[in-house]
Amino acid sequence: MKKKLLRLLTVAAVVLLLPVLIGAKAADGTVYLGGFVTGFDVKLKGAYVLALSDVITENGIFSPAKEAGIVCGDRVMSVNGVEITCAFDISKALSSYKDGTVTVVISRKGENMIKDVTPRFDLSGRCKLGLFVKDGIEGVGTVTFVKKDGIFMALGHPISEDDKVIPEIVGGNIFRCSVYGVVKGGRGHAGELKGIVISDKAIGSLTDNSLQGIVGKMNDEFDYSSLNAVPVGEAKVGKAEMICCVDGVNVESYSVSVVKADHRDKNDKNLVLKINDERLISITGGIVQGMSGSPVIQDGKLVGAVTHVFINDPTRGYGISVKNMLDTAEKLR
């Protein structure tokens, strides 16, 4: 039976922590080790359609967006030639509307489409398209590594509201936080890390959202050179360690096993991982939301990162090869 999976991403306005580690300067072929949890605030390109709604008017009930063929998951890119960069832009684009249709450009699964929508005035006189949108995503996840030039990668999978679509981002930030609690995972349901903002000052900016994780650049104020420098290697079946934080700002190592390694695959599921550490299992039940991006170490080398949990067995999950992440970081420079 096919295992149910959950991408390890908590969509919640939370921000977590930074470790105090004494590191060495990263040499060629090495990176600075992550393992610390951060909160992120991502700005999407366009406005993401969360839901469709009816518009109650003096002449009846209408669903303009639905009637025009717009569906949940679409991204509104422009309305009557006005570029949509945030949800408020839609209201501005409709401010001069009198009657007739408006041209709405949407993006669906990477393809742009034109929809002619007839807006409706509700009982309060406001012009509406009949949809609820959002222009950003907030969440929590773990930084995997920082390169010596300050480029970092986290999560090991894309930020997305829909597993089938990787939304394009136009910026964002990551922040310091502290883990204050854990919702323990179990068979059939995923747990999650709970965190609290330490500082509202960003420690890094986000530039790209990819299949292999989110990419960004650490700010000058964040001294990432104090992190441990580790060489990069290739995962193999056998014992390993997972670096993560489940309490306060303490980054620790926990024993895991690489059950399977497939380096031919270029996506975010190269590895099958098994949590062995009873300490971690007693606290979290296994892999939980917020651990996405946690580094996997073998023989002193960074070989991968945790990406998904098996819903029917939270002590197991998928991981990504660190070389896939590094290749992506290099391509997106």
Shape: elongated
The overall number of domains is 2
Helix content: under 10%
What's the CATH class label of the largest domain?
Mainly Beta
Strand content: over 45%
| Strands, total number | 25
How is the biggest beta sheet arranged? 6 strands, antiparallel, barrel
In angstroms, what is the radius of gyration?
22 Å
CATH architecture annotation of the largest domain: Beta Barrel
Order of strands across the main sheet:
20-21-22-25-24-23
Taking the alpha carbons of the first and last residues, their distance comes to 40 Å
Fill in the CATH topology of the largest domain: Thrombin, subunit H
How does this structure look, described?
The chain has 333 residues and is mainly β. The chain has two domains: 236 residues, Thrombin, subunit H (Beta Barrel); 76 residues, Pdz3 Domain. It is built from four helices and 25 strands. The strands form five sheets. The chain has a six-stranded antiparallel β-barrel with strand order 20-21-22-25-24-23. The protein has a six-stranded antiparallel beta barrel with strand order 3-12-13-18-17-14. The protein has a two-stranded antiparallel ribbon with strand order 4-5. The longest helix is centred in the last third of the chain and has 10 residues. It starts with a strand and ends with a helix. The N terminus is likely disordered.
